[in-house]
Each structure stands twice: as C-alpha cells, then as structure tokens.
Design brief:
10 helices; 3 domains; two-stranded antiparallel ribbon; about 290 residues; 4-stranded antiparallel β-sheet; Arc Repressor Mutant, subunit A
Length: about 290
C-alpha cells in the first residue's frame, strides 16, 4: 500500500513500537540477519537479489522467500529503518528511510489524539459512511478512542447516525454533507477492476452489507476446490459488483489471459448481459495496457 509522505508521522509511533517490542509477524528474524541487511543498505539501496550468501531455509507458505534476509528487510520496513524506493513487478528496492526522503531526522511522531483524528477523518473521506469496524480495520485497540471522538462530533452536529438495512446493532455515521443528494449519481457505465486487497473488498463484512457480495480469495485453496479462481478480481460496474475475473499476465507474450469469468450479483441476470460484458471488456483493454506498461 502507499502512504502520502505528509501522513508518515501518523505511522511513526507504531514503527517505534515494533522496533522496541518486536513484530509478531517477524518473530523468527535473527538479530544477525537484521545487522547484515542494515550494513548492506547503509552502503547502497538493495534488492533481495543482491544478497547471494544467505543460507536458504524452507518456505512456511507459497509466497515466502527462502532467504532469511527477505524477512529481515521486511522487519526493517515495519520498524521505519528502511522504505521501498522502487518496485519492478514483485521485486522491491529497499533504501534507508532518511536518505530516500532527504531527511536529516525523521518527522515528529503524531500524538495518540492526532492519530485518532487522522483515522476518523481518513475513513470519512474514503468511505463516506463509517462504522467502528471500518475505521479501525485490523486496529481494534483504537476503537475506544475513536468511539469517544465520534460521540463528541455527534454532540456538535458534525456527524449523524446512519441506519443501514441489515446492519443489525452495528452503528454507522456520516458527515451531514455526505448525505445531501445534490451531487452527480454514480454513472452506470463506470467500470473498476478491483484487487482482492482493495479497501472496498478487504473489509468483507462491510462489502457484504453494502454490496451484497462475499469475495473468495482462493490463492491458498487447492485448484479443484476453487470457485472463482486463483486470484480473482471483483468488477464494480456503477454501484454493483457484477463479476469476478481470474486473470493471468503473460509478460513474454504481452497479453492478459482470462483464466475464468464468473458472473455474480446482478451480473447473473441474463437481461442486458451483452452490453454489460462489452463495458467490462473495454475496461479490460485499458487494464491490460496498464498492467503491461514498461
């Protein structure tokens, strides 16, 4: 994911905590491997391919590198020692954080209250209608502070409660201006081919509630048991998720290969499907050019 450089200070406290207390995802990283990669990256930016003297280990999962230095570099990223300065395909170039941004020192870390405000404002800007779960996705410990800030904004009239059918006891809120019906409606011709890790998809309960769609990420599912495919991409047309496309890039032939096309939701209806398929194929042409761009 990408973070605007101006927002970096909101992530610094978590990075410092990882440096101080470790990170549960990288508990197996040995101090010697960390010292090794930091010595190398201080000399020059590097990729994992530049490290050729690692003693290879067995993979714990399909996408893991057998080089221990890869996890050491990832840990250095999470602690804020390095950043990713370049990426070619899946190959990342790691660089010292301060050297990459031209900083003599790191920015001032945000306070706990500033982070709470940032999380709420960011969610309102990107989601429109928010819940505690959607604001604090993968960050449940912040719910109490965010709930307090929401309550104060409701008292001031800056946020209003929103009732969504099917939400049950889950509360939602929005800024009053976001609920005013004075903007342009969503164009039914607007097509987005989404990553399964897109924020619109990755919060599965929210996606199910608002779009009535439950995505299946099946990269780790045996091929015979997959329903949508290895790496299916949901397709949003207008305000409906109508299909999931399992695509594969053949970079040598410079083609995007369709492994499987599955109609979902409103896309299952046969009426108007020809026109719907044409819209998606037109977007696939643009998507292919983007994916294969040098």
């Amino acid at each position: 994911s990408y973070v605007p450089a101006g927002d970096f200070r909101f992530f610094l406290p978590a990075m410092r905590e990882h440096r101080r207390e470790g990170h549960k995802w990288f508990a197996s990283v040995k101090p010697a491997d960390t010292r090794k990669v930091m010595r190398l990256v201080r000399a020059a930016p590097l990729t994992i391919r530049d490290i050729e003297d690692d003693v290879l280990t067995e993979k714990e999962h399909l996408w893991q590198s057998r080089k221990p230095s890869k996890r050491a570099l990832q840990l250095a990223f999470y602690t804020g020692a390095v950043t990713i300065s370049e990426r070619q395909g899946m190959l990342k170039t790691y660089e010292l954080m301060t050297r990459h941004f031209g900083w003599d020192t790191l920015p001032r870390p945000a306070s706990a209250m500033e982070i709470t405000t940032y999380l709420l404002d960011r969610a309102l800007r990107s989601q429109g209608v928010v819940s505690l779960d959607s604001i604090c996705h993968l960050d449940a410990p912040r719910k109490k502070a965010v709930a307090g800030l929401i309550a104060s904004r409701v008292r001031r009239g800056e946020l209003v409660p929103v009732v969504i059918n099917g939400a049950g006891k889950q509360e939602h809120w929005a800024a009053p201006a976001a609920l005013e019906v004075n903007g342009e409606p969503v164009s039914p011709d607007l097509v987005h081919i989404l990553s399964p890790f897109d924020p619109l998809i990755i919060q599965r309960k929210r996606t199910s509630l608002i779009f009535g769609y439950n995505h299946l990420f099946e990269a780790y599912v045996p091929k015979a048991k997959r329903k949508l495919g290895y790496f299916a991409l949901p397709v949003l047309v207008g305000d409906e998720i109508v299909a999931a496309l399992d695509l594969k890039t053949d970079r040598q032939a410079k083609k995007l290969l369709m492994q499987k096309w599955t109609w979902v939701g409103q896309g299952k209806k046969t009426a108007g499907r020809k026109e719907l398929k044409q819209k998606i194929e037109e977007e696939l042409d643009r998507f292919e050019r983007f994916q294969l761009a040098e």
